[in-house]
Structures are given as C-alpha cells and as structure tokens.
Amino acid sequence: MTASQTGRTGGADQGPSGGVLIVDFGAQYCQLIARRVRELGVYSRITVPERAMFTFAAMRPQAVILSGGPRSVYEHDAPKLDRAILEQGVPVLGICYGLQWMAQNLGGEVTPAQSGAEYGRTELQVVDGRGFLQGVRDGGIVWMSHGDKVSKLPQGFEVLGKSEPCPFAVVADMKRKFIGLQFHPEVAHTVDGQQMLNNFVLSVAKCSTDWDPGHIVDRKVQAVRELVGETGEVVLGLSGGVDSSVAAAIVHKAIGSRLHCVFVDNGLLRQGERDGVEELFGRDWHMDLKVVDASDRFLGELQGVTDPEQKRKIIGKVFVDVFKHEAKSYRNAKFLGQGTLYPDVIESVAAHGGATSTIKSHHNVGGLPKDLDMQLVEPLRDLFKDEVRAIGRQMGLPSSLVDRQPFPGPGLAVRCLGEITRDRLRALREADAIVRFEVESKGLHKNLWQYFAVHLPVKSVGVKGDARVYEEVCVLRMVSSVDAMTADWELLPVDVLRRLSTRILNEVKGFSRVCLDISSKPPATIEWE
Ligand code: XMP
Prior knowledge:
The protein is an alpha/beta fold and 529 residues long. Helix content is 32%, strand content 24%. Helix 7 crosses helix 13 (385-394). The relative contact order is 0.10.
C-alpha cells in the first residue's frame, strides 16, 4: 500500500495522520502501549499532556489513550491536560492515572486507595462480557499499581469489571465511548491485556488498520525528496548497523548519488565488517561510499588507557572529529542523514519529574548537528526498531544485516579489558569470529540477543604442544533479552561449548584459557565495560 492509498501525509518530521494518540502522563510502559497498538496495524504516536491538543489537531487521531503515571490528580503540579480532549468526539481509553484524570474531569471523584497503594496481581471479575470485555476471561489476572482510585463514577458510566480491592476496575460510558481501566492492560502480567487493547482500538474505535512499516517505504522516500529538494546533498555516517543502513537505503532511493556515505574504520570493528559494508553498499548498491581508515588515530589516542569511561569518551570524541572533518569536505552538502529512531525522540514525561517534559536528543551522532550547521534528515524518526527491520527487509537488505545482533558504538574496545593493543584486538577479533560462526551455523543465534567473546587482561599458565605458555583469558558471553534492559545468561549445548573452547585455544594465539560468563543483568551488564 502506498502513501496515496493510505491517504496519509507527512514530511520527514511529521507523523502520518489517523491512528491512536497516546498521552503520556509519565508511564513506565508508554512505549509498550504504542508498540502494541502498532502491532495491530494501527499507527500510534506518543505526546506529552501539554502538547496533546496541538498534536491532536495535526494528527486527527481516531482514538486517544491516556496513560498511567506516578502522580496523583490532586497534586498541584500534576500533569496538565486540556479537558477539550474529551470533547473531540473520539473514543478515549484511560489507564490508571488516565482513568482518574478522566473521572475527575467528568464529574466523578478520586480518593486515595483505602489500604494505601495497591500493587500487584488481582483477579478480574467480568460484569459485562460484551463489547470492550469481549473474549476477556472471568477470573483472569490483571496487574494493578495505583495509590488513588475512583470512588464515584461520573454520570453515564457503568461497571464492566471489578476486582477484590477495586469495585471500578473496568468502567465505561459506551454512549461517548469513554472507557477506564484501573489496571495496566499493556503489561505481560495482565493475561488478556492485548485482547482489551484490540477491543478498544479495533471494535470500539474502529481504527483503520493500514499501518504496515514494510509498506511505507514510498512515503519515506517521497518525504526525503521533498525535504532535500532537487539539488540538495546529504552526508550520512554509515556504521553498518541496522539503523544507519536502513536510513541510507531510504535516502539513497530518494536522491541517489546526492547521498554521500562515510564509514569510519576505528580499528575496533569485528572481522569482515568493513569489507561487508564496502561490498554491500559500495559495490552492490552503488552508493557513494567513502571509507575512512582512522584506526591509527583511534588506537593512538587509546594507547595506555585502561579506564572504561575514559576509553568511551576518547572514542566518542575522535569519532566526532573525524566525521566532522569528512562532512565538511562535501561542500555542497547542507543535510546530515541520521538513523534516529522513535524511542530517541519521543516527548516523554520524566518518570518522577512532574510535568516537565524531556525531549531526548539524537544520541547516535551526539553533538554533530549543531557544530556542523546542517539540517537533519531522519527518515526513521517515527519508527520502532522492529519496524525499521521490516523496512530493511522490504528494501532487500540481507538478513545478516537486518537481523544482526547489537554491536556497541565503541566496538571491541568495551570487550578488550585493560590496555587496547593491535595484538590483543587481533586475538579478540579471531575469537569473536569463531563464536559467531559456530553459533550462527547451528541456528542457535535465533534464541540469543547477543553472543560474543571478551578479552581479559589476566594471564594464566597453560601447555601448548610441549611448551609452557603464559597467556590471557577469553570469556564467552551469551545472553537472551527482549530489550537489553534486563538479560539472562544462556547455556549453549555442551558440544558447541566444547567446540568453541577447542577452536579458540587451538587457533587463536594469545589465549590459554576459555571461561563462560554466567551472570545475568542485573546485576551484571551485557558488555563488560
Ligand atoms: P549493557 O552493557 O549496558 O548494554 O548491558 C546494553 C545494550 O547496549 C549495547 N551497548 C551500546 N550500544 N553504544 C551502543 O550503540 C554504546 O556505547 C553501547 N554500550 C552498550 C550493548 O551491546 C547491549 O546490547
């Protein structure tokens, strides 16, 4: 489906119209709501309460969701939302704080929960299983987390569901299509939560299901063309990661050779990475790609540095210097392409910071735009990572790139503990290539978030051939995760571990011992530095 078929409009910076507007009252799970709605094929966008009416006017949503939040509607500095949002004739779903705000503004009453705050699992008793609660199980677990509760319903509201501590767990005024939940449907603990969101978005609000990230490439391409114009040129830092690669593919489709990609080899890349980027984007896609070998400069400045934070700072600073220098050499380029994603730009309420909104800035090429005085081209700024992957697939990027495991910006530096030398990087790179090959060739990577090798600056005695060796330790790190916020260590089949150990010890000079990291996050982090 193309832009004209969906009837949607919007430049690189504006979202499409229609869909669901989510007002963020500071909920921990706001992005989760937005993703769940998009998974239904319905566009969703998050905004702060102060900008809600402005965004509403621009977006013309088919439904509104008011999120939960950590505040009480009675606090004098509680997030302010224009009550006109209830007079727009669109269905509104209030979750927790969102329900309390709705009740307060429609003539109901909100009081502190009698037993203090109510947290955790409780069973939902379905009072009316038609409409909004269609398909929702009586006695199913729902997840509560609130300090206040609605004590008197506004006129026109009825109870659809209740729970032991909460007589108004699900309430609705179906004439106006206002629905309120005192629990969180978006969290996994609420068993039929997705069913409730489905019912609201599809049955109650009847939103159009025309959001398909794989099918919006034409719209993205058109938006870039409009922004850049007939003659404009774009410089884009290509890292070989999913975001910058998909952004480059879109901009390239829009303006062809007026896109100039710069790939900085910092000497901290994995085996085959630079060749892979040159082959795919330079040779196969015929992009104007400049590969800058800055490894001497990076490794020179890192010499003797062992402190993890200092390493990161040096790498960040040198990258900005090198990239800025290169970008300036494209004299006609007035635009800077970036693979910024939606989670980086969502206007979110700081979780406990009241109504002050924090707009997260672009932290993939931090500091660059202002210095360079270039206009940003960010074709992915209204998309989540999964959606970017769908677009990448649609555009023909290989699965090895689109579905690849995350690789940190500072590269192998954060896995090469202690001093970074070319020789220690060589050993790490070889071990990492063995890990990737063995895991991927058996298809084990499909259940892993990341799988890599780490180089420890610890020496231990070994015997290789008949000779005594005194070499360092290679650690294997394999984790599963959903979003990298938490992670579990994973145990590979013993024969695979045995093969990894044998190959690394036999083939890689510099390691006399292989160890397995069995630490979850928290308290450990995924990377070692
Ligand atoms: P940690 O080690 O904090 O990592 O558990 C969480 C996720 O983030 C990745 N990571 C980074 N990604 N720049 C990045 O782009 C960085 O500086 C960076 N540090 C960590 C890490 O690989 C994991 O997926």
